[in-house]
Amino acid sequence: MSHDVVRRVFQVVDSFDPDKFAELLAEDATLVFGNAEPMVGRDAVAAGLRTFYSTIGGLRHRIVRDWQVGADTIAETQVTYRRLDGKDAAVVAVSIWRTRDDGLISDYRIFADLAPVYEP
């Protein structure tokens, strides 16, 4: 997987379109955000993202560094979240995903502390 593909994944995430993100996934893909329960399947992931997106005004990723190890991609990012009060909150995040031979993501994991996004 090239850096261009990593950039494309985050462009889709930043588009704020859960259905477009779900198109990157295998039908039975799993997405886990931190310690939350896994979301399994495209529909569940899209629904979970819709819920999450309803709590923020937007987001954008800046890729700090990425690595590919076989079918696995690891990306360190600086994520700027637009809070619902209009303020921005920046957090460091690491995303790890596994891509199948057909190019679809089968497992996606996100590690970030979102406390600054929701603090009063």
Features:
about 120 residues, alpha+beta, 6-stranded mixed beta sheet, 4 helices, 6 strands, globular
* Average pLDDT score: 96
Q: Would you count the extended β strands for me?
A: 6
Shape: globular
Sequence of strands across the biggest β-sheet: 2-1-6-5-4-3
First-residue to last-residue Cα separation: 40 Å
Secondary-structure element order, N to C: HHEEHEEEEH
Strand content: over 45%
Give the assembly state of these chains.
single chain
Low-confidence stretches: none
* Tally of alpha and pi helices: 4
* Largest β sheet strand count, sense and barrel closure: 6 strands, mixed
Structural class determined from secondary elements: alpha+beta
Radius of gyration: 14 Å
- Fraction of residues in helix: 25-40%
Strand-helix topology:
Elements: H1 3-14, H2 18-22, E1 25-33, E2 39-40, H3 42-53, E3 58-69, E4 72-82, E5 88-99, E6 105-112, H4 115-118
Parallel strand pairs: 1-6
Antiparallel strand pairs: 1-2, 3-4, 4-5, 5-6
